[in-house]
Amino acid sequence: MKKELLSLLECPQCRDTLVENANGGLECEKCHHQVQMSNGIAMFTDVPLTIEPWEKVERGLDKGTAWRRANWKFLQNQVVSLPAEAKILDIGAGHGDFADIFVGRNYFSLDIVPYPEVDLVADLGQHNPFKDAAFDALVLMNVLEHVFESRDLLKSL
């Protein structure tokens, strides 16, 4: 796990410090809540059985439909206005469709599916493992329409 990411996390049960444990996962120093790792990805939530992962599709400023290209350009314009040191969380990052926009940035990715491109798995409507004000920018590109309880997700942020 990225050391910078670990410094932004806290126990979703008691809000205390998480540390790496001898089993290769994370553990709360206070309540001993365990967070398992899968291929280097912290698993704060079990992957729902109804989720069907998809194959990676190449995305970019000049790829896909006009709508997708406009999405890319919009996000790119937003990101360049952020300070270089800004911490950015991409919620619903999937296969990292927009990751190229964040190259050289303090970028972290989250999804409900442990895709290889994801830093951690969590359903933020159920468990928010982040310290308050941990990020300077949150990205939810093409996400809310896939979240059943989108209000719960937004409240957790």
Describe this structure in words.
With 157 residues, this protein is of the alpha/beta class. The chain has three helices and eight strands. It has helices at residues 3-6, 66-80, 150-156, and strands at residues 18-20, 26-28, 34-38, 41-43, 87-91, 106-111, 120-121, 137-139. Strands 1-2-3-4-7-6-5-8 form an eight-stranded mixed β-sheet, with no helix packed on it. The longest helix has 15 residues, at 66-80. The mean pLDDT is 88.
Concise summary:
By secondary structure, the chain is an alpha/beta fold.
Structural Rg: 16 Å
**Percent of residues in beta strands?**
15-25%
Task: Determine the mean pLDDT.
Answer: 88
Describe the largest sheet: 8 strands, mixed
Task: Give the number of DSSP strands.
Answer: 8
Could you say which overall geometry the principal axes of the C-alpha atoms support?
Answer: globular
- Percent helix, as a range, is 10-25%
Low-confidence stretches: none
By secondary-structure content and strand pairing, the structural class works out as alpha/beta
Strand order of the largest sheet: 1-2-3-4-7-6-5-8
What series of H and E elements makes up the topology?
HEEEEHEEEEH
Alpha-carbon distance between the two ends: 22 Å
Number of helices: 3
